[in-house]
Amino acid sequence: MSEVKVKKETNLSDPVEVENRIKELCQQFPHGITDQVIQNDLPHLEPQQRAMALNKLLSLGQLDLLRNSSGLLYRMKDSQSTGKMKGSDNQEKLVYQVIEDAGSKGIWSRDIRFKSNLPLTEVNKILKNLESKKLIKAVKSVAASKKKVYMLYNLQPDRSVTGGAWYSDQDFESEFVEVLNQQCFKFLQSKAEAARESKQSPMVQRNSSFATSHEVWKFICELGISKVMLS
Description:
alpha+beta, disordered N terminus, transcription, WH_DNA-bd_sf, DNA-directed RNA polymerase III subunit RPC6, nucleus
């Protein structure tokens, strides 16, 4: 018979128990919790008590305060981020968290401003400071050559940012693509000619003239033009 777990009632008169319950909620929802989540879980907790508990956890560096379109979010602080951001103010920590959440796809400065709710001049100042500390980096995106996205310094940019094999330093490799086009055409043309010369039925000739993507990829690799893996 499976064990039934009963939620332990939080002693609302004990600030430590309230703080522990908020931390438990943050662990249950690693992407963050809103004020409403805490209210739903602790409906009889006074607003002043809730604010005191949250401020205590924030001041101890156990929670991060984030913003999104729904408002404020409270999230358990990552121990690695804590060490990296030691000595930074709350605004700098907030911008770092926004960039960290964007992952390897990065984020535009405009979106950082929206999510952090900070003035553009302040965001630009913080970005320069984080770049100088080698905590973040700016990467040109193929989606908009004149704009940059920001991501954590140690991340490898996503293919959607770099453009993958068709791009080099965010510049489209037109000559490389033209060579590939020519060689692919020659390969398919040779397949069609071989099918016609086989003197078999029209249907067999038609089917044998086709080539799979794997066959084309293998042909290109054997020529030594590209070493890109087939996804």
